[in-house]
Amino acid sequence: MKRVSFCKLISIWMFLLVIIWPVNASAEEKTEILRLNIFERYYKYMMPHFQDFIDITNKKYGIILDVTTVITTDSDSLYYATKNKDIDIIVLSMNNLRSENYPYIANKLVIPIDIEKIPNYQNINPLFQEKPQIMDEGYHYGLPIFAGLHSLAYNADIVNEEPDSWSVLWDKDNAKKYSICSNYPEGNIFITALALGSKAQDLSDYNSLIHQIPLNTLRTKLNQLTSNVYSYYPVYPSLGEMKHLSYTTTWGLRVLEAQKQGMNWKTVYPKEGCKGWLDILAITSAVTPNSRKYDICLDFFNYFLRNELQVKCTENGDLIPVTYNATTHDSSQYSFSEDYFVSAFHSEEIETDTMRLIDALWKYAMTQKSTSIIFKDKYEDSEIMGTEGDDNDLDFIHAGSYYKRGKKIAEERRRIRSQKASALPITLPIDLKLLLVEHSIKTGYTKQEIIIKALEEYMAKYALVKQAPAK
């Protein structure tokens, strides 16, 4: 047997290296991972179509696309995952994109979307196309994906007559028989304003709102709503509670689940109007503009904006397609008129003054709560309770950023006790923080009094307690 020389072995090794290395490198270049954040409520609608999108993408680019999904449960975790560049595409509320609490655009956490490369953009209802909440300096940073109405639902097994007004939530006979959302303070204030006669299209405008309703009247009405509520839900009403509740505010999504469990819940659209909600898709700064992944993101948007797919994903009636138009869609599944629909979404971005008003009114309403507040966590069998006069008073300040885990609540409570008001969540306006600190160092005040005095001064500072101007 001939012995193979050392030089010949080296030559063979080099030859194999030249042949195999490009193959491995090429395989790596042909693999693309697209990381998606999708709200849990959308996953079941969108996921069945992922494979079709993957097949189309693989054929178009000659690659192997791997789509991974991350289901977030709260706005804080989504924001920080985006900040850490852990996600490529996010789904979020239209109002969060430019908010002070989650400044995605200001902090350059999302990048502009080239709508010229999205042919199906033209399918979107013009009412949604250029919302100021998703625009900045003429660029689109968000693309509508699904819409709906923040409406009223009732338990037909308990309630004999179908309600047609938000006023049922203030009926004394319905005290402790309804649930409202804890993570949507503006929605609770908006339905309060609607019950007092405000128009849906005026809810976002501070001057229009206070011109119609004296603020003391609005505050008193809101306090009644929060005083008589049975429970708050962070995302969806509890199915267990819905068995014995009479009413709940709803995004429309939970009612179908209750019906599947044999409960006789129905959604109604009160005559005073509803506030529409719009969820959007955005591309994070983890994606390089004009790269292959960027183009795949645009293709993903284009795929789910196909009219037939929008209808397919919303055919159960709990969501409204963003391509919805009464002239091109079967509107029989919706019990509202085209005018009602337009009114719900015909509003500009919520003004800073309006958000300050909402922030102050909601926190003030929380301090006036005299009975137990229960925050239900859909993902854990835990309750967080607080009553007037106990050590939990400052926990009511969490409006808009509730902690859903008992461990986090305990940690936050210890932090507040040790650092007083200076350790309150960063979502609070700095001026309100300073007032809380100022009052916390004064002797003779209970925590309840500290909160009330600070809020009253904060509201007065920003003219949030002045009477409405004369007509």
Structural class of the secondary structure composition? alpha+beta
Strand content: 15-25%
Radius of gyration, whole Å: 26 Å
Number of helices: 17
Report the strand count: 15
What is the approximate shape? globular
Low-confidence stretches: 16-27, 370-427, 464-471
Sheet having the most strands = 9 strands, mixed
Helix content: 25-40%
The span between the termini is: 109 Å
The overall average pLDDT, rounded, is: 75
- Quaternary status of these chains? single chain
Give the structure's gist in a few sentences:
The chain is α+β, with helices and mostly antiparallel strands and 471 residues long. 39% of the residues lie in helices and 15% in strands. Residues 16-27, 370-427 and 464-471 have low confidence and may be disordered.
What do these coordinates show?
- With 471 residues, the chain is an alpha+beta fold.
- It has helices at residues 6-29, 40-46, 50-61, 75-83, 126-129, 185-195, 206-212, 215-227, 239-242, 253-260, 292-304, 307-313, 338-345, 352-367, 406-419, 430-440, 447-461, and strands spanning 31-37, 64-70, 89-93, 110-111, 135-136, 139-140, 143-155, 178-181, 231-233, 247-250, 265-268, 275-284, 320-321, 373-376, 383-386.
- A hairpin with a 6-residue loop joins β14 (373-376) and β15.
- The longest helix is centred in the first third of the chain and has 24 residues, at 6-29.
- The radius of gyration is 26 Å and the shape is globular.
- The chain starts with 5 loop residues before the first helix and ends in a 10-residue tail after the last helix.
- Residues 16-27, 370-427 and 464-471 have low confidence and may be disordered.
